[in-house]
Amino acid sequence: MKLRKLNLSRYSIYLILLAMFIGSSFLSPNFLTPENMTNIPRQLTVTTILAFGEMMLIICGMIDLSAGSVLALAGVLSVVAYKSTHSIVLALVVGIVVGVICNLISAVMTADFEVPPFIATLAVGMVARGAVLLYTHGQNILQLGNFTVLGQGSLGPVPIPVLFLIVAVAVTGYLMTQTKYGRALYAIGGNELAARASGINVRRTKYQAFILNGIFVGVAGVLFMSRVNAGLPNGAVGYEMEGLTSAVVGGTSFTGGVGTTLGTLAGAFIIGLLNNIMNLVGVQSYVQQITKGVIIAVAVMYDIRSKRTKRTHVILKADAVDSQPRPPEPSLQK
């Protein structure tokens, strides 16, 4: 019975995703059309890539509230680089570099000055949004030409954004399961003091987490601007919450130390399907925001309750073991 309950809990996120997919096909006749099936992964790519960066930070006991603003800054500067050079590769590099620089600032504040990640990333996000608005004077950058191939093009039957997503899934999955870096993230999120005592370089691991998050945010910024065919200084507002929601719904614990790549991917698809079907049936954007807020609250409460129950179970089990009578120690014969 316990094994069956454990397996059900482990795969519940995928069962929910399957149920949502089936339910959505009945709610709207347009859901299963080829156009919509192609549009869903294109829409999911940016927020899912952000979710992987958020997942690594949350597992390590941190958070990023600057992702949406840094995405806008990285994306707009990549557009500027492309319009100056007409090089898509250079534009992608610029976006990644900007994302990494912004996240390095957060890393310095968090790892070296012990500023809470909530405050550090919030400050960086405000600076990034203000910087991109100041640079563009609040005006959109239009006429991007071939820059749109990254967000709107396809390689055979596969959309190019989906190829970026596949690479992100593979890289994240490898890092989290096959490297010392991934094990260090789980250890720090579980108990930072114990991680330090075991010889883990906590400062270096936090820097690595922010650098990888910066790479993901930079790539997401380029893909976002390419998909919308404009450099939008006011774009991607609230996207950090989309990434956070995807990670938390996918089983990443806000208290750190728990989370998986496939779970986050499933959480991102759940949020994406929810957004898609609400748009298809004409749900107001305000109601959509309320729904996402409720989902975050329920997911966090469930995580806290499950951890509290597990902790109580461990304590009771330890007390039961301690209360059992022990056999008398044999006396020493002279």
From TrEMBL:
It holds the Pfam family BPD_transp_2. One of its GO terms (molecular function) is transmembrane transporter activity. Keywords: Cell membrane, Membrane, Transmembrane, Transmembrane helix. Its main location: membrane. It is found in: Cell membrane. The chain crosses the membrane at residues 12-32, 52-81, 88-109, 155-176, 207-226, 247-274. It is a multi-pass membrane protein. Signal peptide: none annotated. GO terms for cellular component: plasma membrane. PANTHER family: ABC TRANSPORTER PERMEASE PROTEIN YPHD-RELATED-RELATED. This is Ribose import permease protein RbsC. It comes from bioreactor metagenome.
